[in-house]
Amino acid sequence: MVDGEQVGVARLGVIGCGLMGSGIVEVAARAGVDVLVREIDAGAVEAGRARITGSLDRAVKRGKLSAEDRDATLGRVSFTTDLGDFGDRQLVVEAIAENEQLKTEIFSTLDKVVVSPDALFASNTSSIPIMKLGMATSRPEQVIGIHFFNPVPVMPLVELVPSLLTSDATKESARAFVTGPLGKQVITSQDRAGFVVNALLVPYLLSAIRMLESGFASADDIDNGMVLGCSHPMGPLRLCDLIGLDTIKAVAESMYDEFKEPLYSSPPLLARMVDAGLLGKKNGRGFHDYR
Ligand code: CAA
Question: Which fold has domain 199-283?
Answer without folding.
Answer: N-(1-d-carboxylethyl)-l-norvaline Dehydrogenase; domain 2 (1.10.1040)
